[in-house]
Amino acid sequence: MDWGAGIEVAVREAVTQSSFDVFEPSKKAVDDASLREVMAECGNAGVDAIVLLQTTMADGRMAPTLAQIWPHPPIFWASPENPVGDMISSCSLVGAHLWASSFRQMGRSSDVVYGDPNDAATLAKLDTSIRSAAIVRKLRSARVGVIGGQAPGFANMATDPFAMRRLIGPQLQTYSLIEFESVVKELSEDAVAADVEQVKKLGFEYKDASEADLPMASRLYLAMRHFFESENLDALSVRCWPEMPNVFGQWPYLGMARLADEGLAITCEGDADGAIGSLIGEMFGMGRCYLSDWLEHDEESITLWHVGAMPPSLSPPTGEPGSPKLAKHFNIKKPVVLESELKAGMPLTLFRLWRCDGEYRLTACDAESETPRALMCSNGKARLLNRKPNEWFEDMYRQGMPHHLNVFPGNHTAKLKRFAALAGIEWFD
Asked: What's the domain range around 41?
């Protein structure tokens, strides 16, 4: 008990210094009744993720009660044994293993973090587990919007609202382009003018677009933001082609790039699962998302290219080669796309969430950005660190993976793999 008490103090000190707000119940859970009391306290406190610490082995008969009263994945923290002496000191890992195994046999997911609270690696695992549990919970109440459906022929990204709800939790809400057009037209001139001034402050250079294009670009931006705010959306995807440039005289890509840089989960071409992937990355704190085509690859690198909606923070600053420029689309010559390059020398994660064969799947690779060849719209080059591009491509297209990748700064594959296990999503290396 003395060893366990010391570990408890160390854990409390460690978690209170983390990036999370920490709530500790008024008593310990030692039986069914006290467990129900402390879980009620956690619920009243608005706790997003539960971490259960057993510095000495807890009664495994409480595990079914926890499964009944907490519908989200719990995290079991197992602390190490006293390395001194010939007597076992806690059986903490045995207890956590027992609870985790029981949860699995009840058809429930959980996570186990094992290690010393004074070890930075342990705290990093705990951070990933807490964020993973919070994301799983968030997805169960998330609202994902799609305006206009999928782009023509992109049936591989078509969404099934019932499968999405059943398998990973979000509800899907669909809106027509006519509904979107109504919002665009109803925006006040004052609101549009104020937003144009905000765009000017961003300091983008012009290629073949002009300042005269900004009012409509602002209307499209404000309309997309309206759907996030008025419809309480956590993620949004927009069918940007082929109708939008004909209806509005512009592409919405400058607005999409701005919204993405503001931390909102938004994607083009009606890719709802891509938008969910963006939301997952944002909740992990991975940074801003660039949704890109897998354009081509060689023995080491993938060429990333897309329509001109890369978040500007991922590009070189104004005045440097590859910095964002306001331009017209390379194909239908209408504004406004953000022509830019992905900064070279950045660690990257390329990943994709998708549905196939009645299940959700997830894959990811760590990479590093390289200087790309010059291409219109937005582009980059990613050298994979742990796989050959062609091997990954052949493995994944056989699993039905669509051609869009979520591209985030930083190497986060290990985090995403841990999340997939907790979320019950099939992982593919």
From this structure: 2-139
User: Furthest-apart CA pair in the chain: how many Å?
Assistant: 80
Q: Which tens digit of pLDDT belongs to each residue from 338-347?
A: 999 999 999 9
Helix or strand or coil: residue 425? Answer: coil
**Cα pseudo-dihedral 388, 393, 394, 398, rounded to 10:** 150
Percent above pLDDT 90 for the chain? 97
Domain edge (last residue) among 86, 116, 139: 139
380 three-state secondary structure? strand
Report the C-alpha gap between 299 and 407 in whole angstroms. 19
Strand partners, 76: 52, 112
> What CA–CA distance (Å, rounded) separates 183 from 171?
22
- 135 and 84 both lie in a single domain: yes
pLDDT digit string (tens) for 110-142? 999 999 999 999 999 999 999 999 999 999 999
Domain boundary among 139, 174, 209: 139
Coil, strand, or helix at residue 189? helix
Whether residues 161 and 108 share a domain: the answer is no
